[in-house]
Amino acid sequence: MNGFTAVFASLGFAILFNIKGDKLAVAALIGGIGGVIYDLMVFMNHSVAMSLFIASILISILSELFARIMKCPVTTFLICAIIPLVPGGGMYYTMLEIVQNQLDSAIVMGVNTIVQACSIVLGCILISSIMRVYNQITNKRKSLCQK
Amino acid sequence: MDCNKLARTATKAGVMLLESGAETYRVEDTMRRICQAYGASVVDAYATPTMIIISFSIHEELYHNIKRTQIKSVNLSKIDKVNDLSRRITKESMSLEEFYIRLEKIDEEGVYPTKIMLLGAAICSFGFAFFFKGTLKDALCSLVLGVLLKSLMIFADKFDFNSFFKYLLGGAFTTLGAIVCSRLSLLDSIDTTIIATIMLLVPGLAITNAVRDTVSGDLVSGLARMAEAVIVAVAIALGSGLVFTLLGGY
């Protein structure tokens, strides 16, 4: 169970992306939660892609929530928290198989990596689409109230 | 009211947002909000990762401004501040001059000093080594490599390397460093060490923004950012693969 170490990864990235103050802690925390959930899902024998999907949904929801609480852009948290999930390992092993001229396993690895990347993207798309609809509805209601 | 100044101020805010890595809709939205707050009508703002166009009319007169932008270093707190400032125009009835001065003040605010940046890279690669189930030895090696890699990237930024070459160099350097460490038997798993260090280069911002741009219908920016992410990923893999091929495996 190494999921919580994603806290450090997200914290490091938050520093590199110049986030300051208490937002630093929140970004790291969300990243850590995402890492723990991902690890827990894999531990419970779900597929890697499914685990990434759920973790990315959770990270997106938390980022949207904290962005509203702390009144700052969603990406402040989302980018730092999602980076630990990016399948860098898959990319690396694909490259390694190609270098060792084992194209069969390289293709298997490559497709796996793409599927994993897509499942992260899908989780993000799902939540940000829902939030867009939600925002439209609240905006409409606001303008109706003003009339 | 000076309408040319309004056009310039709105584009400056847009450029600051875009160059620090904001999503396209946020850039367009902020520019539109600024113009409308100062009484412009029929505002059209358009942004791609490399260009900003704005057009609005005041008193039947039409004003435009076009600005070429470059992808610069990511600075998420600058996005936060510019965004916040643009929302406060109407609330605090700020004058255009005051808004411009406060915008410039935000622009001059520095990023973290290099030492803190290197510390960030160290924390990052150290954490990643454990995240990928490495041992303490691996983590310490990736910590050192991460700091060196970040210094290399800062150096490359100073001399304006193009991004493909920069990431190629990064991938190659990391692999070379890890191979040297493994020859000196300083680490347990060369793969974990390389992955943990290379995660520093992963195009997380480009991927996230590509997704958010595509969702909000900015297809040009979405595709451009997706292309950026793929190019970076390929460059890292190529750099790393090159070293492995030249040195004949481990």
What are the main properties of this structure?
heterodimer, A: 147 residues, mainly alpha, B: 250 residues, 3-stranded antiparallel beta sheet, 69% helix
Structure characterization notes:
The complex is a heterodimer of chains A (147) and B (250). Chain A is built from 6 helices and no strands. Chain A is 82% helix and 0% strand. The termini of chain A are far apart. By secondary structure, chain A is mainly alpha-helical. The model of chain A has no long low-confidence stretch (mean pLDDT 91). Chain A has one domain (3-146). By secondary structure, chain B is mainly alpha-helical. Chain B folds into 2 domains: 3-108, no CATH class; 114-247, no CATH class. Helix content of chain B is 69%, strand content 10%. Chain B has 10 helices and 3 strands. Chain B has helices at 3-19, 24-37, 76-92, 96-108, 114-131, 136-158, 163-183, 190-198, 204-215, 219-247, and strands at residues 41-48, 51-58, 61-68. Chain B has a 3-stranded antiparallel β-sheet with strand order 1-2-3. In chain B, helix 2 packs parallel to helix 3. The termini of chain B are far apart. The interface between A and B is large, with 51 and 57 residues.
Sheet with the most strands: spatial strand order of chain B = 1-2-3
What's the β-strand tally of chain A? 0
Mean pLDDT of chain B: 90
Given helix and strand content, the structural type of chain A is mainly alpha
- Approximate strand percentage of chain B: 5-15%
Find the structural class of chain B using helix and strand composition.
mainly alpha
Main sheet: strands, sense, barrel of chain A: none
Q: What count of structural domains of chain A? A: 1
- The beta-strand count of chain B equals 3
Number of helices of chain B: 10
Overall helicity of chain A: over 70%
**Apparent shape of chain B:** elongated
Largest interface: A-B, 51 and 57 residues
Oligomer: heterodimer
Number of domains of chain B: 2
Output the helix-strand order of chain B: HHEEEHHHHHHHH
Q: What's the rounded overall pLDDT mean of chain A?
A: 91
